[in-house]
UniProtKB/TrEMBL annotation:
Domain Hcy-binding, first and last residues per copy: 5-306
Positions that bind Zn(2+): C209, C291, C292
GO BP: any one term: L-methionine salvage
Task performed by this protein: Involved in the regulation of homocysteine metabolism.
Extent of the signal sequence: none
Coiled coil: none
UniProt source species: Eleginops maclovinus
Protein name, UniProt field: Hcy-binding domain-containing protein
Cofactor(s) in the UniProt record: Zn(2+)
Keywords: Metal-binding, Methyltransferase, Transferase, Zinc
Cellular-component GO terms for this entry: cytosol
Amino acid sequence: MSKRKGILERLNAGEVVVGDGGYVMQLERRGYVKAGHWTPEAAVEHPEAVRQLHREFLRAGANVIQTFTFYCSEDKLEISGNVKSITGSEINEAACDMAREVANEGDALVAGGVSQTPCYVQSHNETEVKAIFKKQMDDFMKKDIDFLIAEYFEHVEEAVWAVEVMKTSGKTVGSTLCISPHGDMDGVPPGECAVRLVKAGAEIVGINCHLDPLTCVRTVKLMKAGLEKAGLKAHLMIQPLGFHTPECNLGGYLALPEFPFALETRAMTRWDMQKYAREAYNAGIRYIGGCCGFEPYHIRAIAEELAAERGFLPPASEKHGLWGAALEMHTKPWVRTRARREYWENLLPASGRPQCPSMATPADE
């Protein structure tokens, strides 16, 4: 088997890299993650559940399988109280093994991910925070993951510290912030955030989680403009929220009254995802995936929208007629009329909840 191309080799060649989707929220809904703490002990306790979700994302077209290590820092695990007999290292290593196993079933890469820490908020102690990131990085290096991602950071300062630590590994490093077009929680604008991340050593920068895809595309565009103004270059990455958040508030969906147990009415359709994929591609973003709320069929929608650019369809498209084409065989004539792109592109879906508002007032406003 020939050596598969690395993440930078793919991006430097102009390839579209499709990321995977959300894990903690999907696994919470399936009964394997506890809401509130969102820690990933399921990688050890219920590996079959994590492995199955990896496989579904791979089949949907993902080129990257991320380790299920979100919030797997020792300080977060201790605070959660969910994990009493399993160490962070055991979770990290089990997650790496599973991600590699599934990635090897296709042409996917494995990305080891670290995220924001309680320690940063409590102490702002650079030495302590960096020690936490290094411990996780060391676990990843034992398993020789393909590259590293520092994701889900509300403060660019902490993300910079994460990047600085991970650059010592010699691996490619990407970094995504969960911020709005207004900037991070300290008021640092997106463009300046991108500059700081690239100067710290990140080769891939962008946005993940907290806000919906088109809002995140706007934020990545601001990051791109900031890099261009500073004369810096980096590949762009986006892995947004899979829910509509037109409120576009600073704290994102965490401040919405529906978070986390009543977000279903905000769920995006596969057709929303195709529009997102095209907008992201047109903005110059080439690493395009998803975060919380993104299910495998959403990732398939990204892969289908960009099939011409990628040169192929994902395996999961064998069970999906493009733009509803398979509906031509339906017994109901009014359903058969929906077997066309124009219908789904122009549909304004009803919520079925006539007494509910279309938007909410976020708690942080």
